[in-house]
Amino acid sequence: MQAFKKFMREANLIAGVWRGARSGKTFEVNNPATGEIIGTVPDADGEDTREAIAAAQEAFLSWRKTTAAQRAAIMRKLAAALEANKEDLARLLTTEQGKSLTEARAEISGSANYVLWFSEEARRIYGDTVPSPWSERRILVLKEPVGVVGAITPWNFPSLMLSRKIGAALAAGCTVVAKPASQTPYSALAWGLMAEEAGLPPGVINIVTGDARKIGKELTENPVVKKITFTGSTGVGKALVAQAAGTMKRVSMELGGNAPFIVFDDADIDAAVAGAIQSKFRNSGQTCVCVNRFLVQSGIHDAFVEKLGAAIAELKVGNGLEEGTDQGPLIDVKGVEKVEEHVVDAVGQGAHVVAGGRRHTLGGSFFEPTLIVGVTPSMKVAREETFGPVAAVFRFEREEEAIAMANDTEFGLAAYAYTRDLGRTFRVLEGLEYGQVGINAGVITTEVAPFGGVKESGMGSEGSKYGVEEYLNVKYGCIGIA
Ligand code: NAP
């Protein structure tokens, strides 16, 4: 038996008990690299979710009373458990998700880093004392945990997305009902094992897998749940916000993107190409912050395209479990079809394929790393999130034109620019309507900085001190002392 299989729980965790769905139903999970069914997990519904919410509420009553130091100590153990089991958890993640082992290992370490960071923040959840306008009264501001949190996560980072939510919730003193993506439930269920190893009390973390609509409806409509945190597509995010409005829940939404990557004439071209490869092809282009549009200034355009093409040719496509693989399969054939549709549409409107452009000879959901030039704003690849390994290059002449092109989208998650001009750095940083901007940096996510989008890319921040605030209520206390 492969060692990682001991972390493959085929049950949900509710109130500290591993169990199936009340209906007895299950669904299959497959390996996107091989198409092989790797196992089945419970197909939970609203009733199971209600029980998980009740368990989380029961646990909240005592978890909220723990000291910050007690929570931090358990969270350090949780981070240590993730790190200690990194190799197995990474293999499990690659098996259900497809990304390379190198990336999967980095994701598990990243998850541990979030938990560790939040364990430190738990001890710094300060309130305020405010100078009072009344001599006989004192004013205090207390920070209190919001309560039970419903957390819904996507398949592209099945561990990391959970860590940002669970880490912040635990630090604040909240309890959680998590619903992972159906294509990658095992990485989330393994968090239940890590929680047990760390000694988290039963009910503090509950994990339900299954029917997204039924689970989502219960999480958003049940009045016991006080906050919904969601990472996923903009369409589902909007529906969840509407559903959560009925009980006026707090919401954090990390949604889709359409990231621009601007390369100015004065850029360090090799650094820009290295940043482009990391940002575009990580996770086979299936990250919400990955570049969707390369905007390249005329003077550097041809040289950049040539070097990017050469770097793309070096990418090794294969099963993520094989060491040395740079790009694994896409999550499923539907993902491939969308990528293909974007390439065909661009070529039909006059774009030119420099590299790749087709399904990979490995078959299944593998797609060739692709470079297309001559892209214009009317093409699908310019307007929609491609979510695949396609580098689409536009040409521009002036700085203001590039900023306007970059902002010409309803999304506002991440943007990148390469320049060595200091004044331009600030003009671009301030001009881009995005929640996060990398200047001369292609991968910028870290637990210490706020991650989040503006416009239709969502609301709220994850990670950093701002990420904890999302799980806290502010209470004003006015104390008469006369
Ligand atoms: P998705 O379809 O929105 O699914 C995300 C999660 O929502 C999954 O757990 C899914 O469950 C669940 N879900 C689907 N329909 C639901 C409903 N009606 N009610 C409640 N839950 C529902 O997104 P995806 O295609 O898996 O993920 C890719 C998207 O996520 C991209 O747009 C990407 O940009 C975005 N993303 C954003 C960030 C960020 O931080 N901004 C990070 C990563 C990804 P099932 O799997 O069971 O359908």
From TrEMBL:
One of its GO terms (molecular function) is succinate-semialdehyde dehydrogenase (NAD+) activity. GO terms for biological process: gamma-aminobutyric acid catabolic process. The keyword Zinc-finger does not apply. Pfam families: Aldedh. The keyword Hydrolase does not apply. GO terms for cellular component: cytosol. Keywords: Oxidoreductase. The active site is at E254. Residues 18-475 form the Aldehyde dehydrogenase domain. NCBIfam families: SSADH. This is NAD-dependent succinate-semialdehyde dehydrogenase. It comes from Devosia nanyangense.
